[in-house]
Amino acid sequence: MTHVVTDACIRCKYTDCVDVCPVDCFKEGPEYLVIDPDECIDCAVCIPECPANAIYAEDDLPDGMEVFLQFNKKLAPTLPTITKRKAALPDAEQWRVVSHKLSGLNIAL
């Protein structure tokens, strides 16, 4: 099993989760993070660290968020690893409360 970064991360990109990951499984896109399912050891330490509540265990994904399992799997091999915390995106707080942000990205799943 793996953990999955969902919609709540898009256009926020808080990186608190990166600091606690013992295996550096987070990958960084321009407006989001994903978890590399081949690297994730299912430790769950990232879940409580995410201020946007964007991370779930694969088996605990909320209804309608199953697409993010594929999103993480597909994008992880194409993105660089992020190992240190960075500032969130400038308008992260505004985007934090917005849902259904995947449609705003130009990514074919």
TrEMBL record:
SUPFAM superfamilies listed in its UniProt record: 4Fe-4S ferredoxins (SSF54862)
Necessary cofactors: [3Fe-4S] cluster; [4Fe-4S] cluster
Keyword Electron transport annotated: yes
Protein origin, superkingdom: Bacteria
Pfam families: DUF3470, Fer4_7
Positions of the 4Fe-4S ferredoxin-type domain: 1-30, 31-60
Alphabetically ordered keywords of this record: 3Fe-4S, 4Fe-4S, Electron transport, Iron, Iron-sulfur, Metal-binding, Repeat, Transport
Entry-linked PROSITE patterns: 4FE4S_FER_1, 4FE4S_FER_2
Record function comment: Ferredoxins are iron-sulfur proteins that transfer electrons in a wide variety of metabolic reactions.
Entries under PANTHER family matching the protein: FERREDOXIN (PTHR42859:SF2), OXIDOREDUCTASE (PTHR42859)
NCBIfam families assigned to the protein according to its UniProt record, in alphabetical order: FdxA_Protbact
Protein name as catalogued: Ferredoxin
Organism: Acidovorax benzenivorans
